[in-house]
Write a structure and sequence with these properties.
133 residues, mainly alpha, 68% helix
Length: 133
């Protein structure tokens, strides 16, 4: 039978500390091993991973895009409210019209209201800039 590979106790301990969220302890143990000159290749590899700068703002997968028809759905809710429907009636009509759950409808309405508020702020700023000219 083939011999089992040697397990590096220090590397295992450091990765265990990292996975438990004890990053300060892991870094202290790593520095002790590196300063003492007893760091194994596995420990040195962990040190290299920890020192390598993380890419900021890099997102994996497809680019984020606006969920399908959220602005249209938010506008439909707003129109129903302007027509005099209560919040409960408008939300019920939204759930009937679009195959979405209640929490998703809440998120859509909040998203639309935020976008509408931002748009109105931009319009007001534009009008202020024009009046100054």
């Amino acid at each position: 039978m083939a011999p089992l590979p040697k397990i590096d106790k220090d590397a295992t301990a450091i990765t265990s500390m990292q996975s438990q969220g004890r990053y300060d302890e892991a870094m202290a143990r790593l520095l002790d091993l590196l300063r003492g000159g007893t760091a194994s290749p596995a420990v040195q590899a962990i040190a290299a991973e920890m020192l390598e700068p993380k890419a900021k703002g890099v997102r994996r997968g497809p680019k984020a895009k606006l969920p399908f028809k959220w602005l249209e759905m938010g506008e439909a809710y707003r129109i129903m409210r302007l027509e005099g429907k209560t919040d409960t009636e408008a939300r019920g009509a939204m759930e009937d019209r679009y195959p979405r759950g209640g929490r998703t409808i809440d998120t859509i309405i909040a998203f639309y209201n935020s976008a509408l508020h931002d748009y109105q702020d931009l319009q007001a700023a534009s009008l202020r800039d024009e009046s100054r000219k």
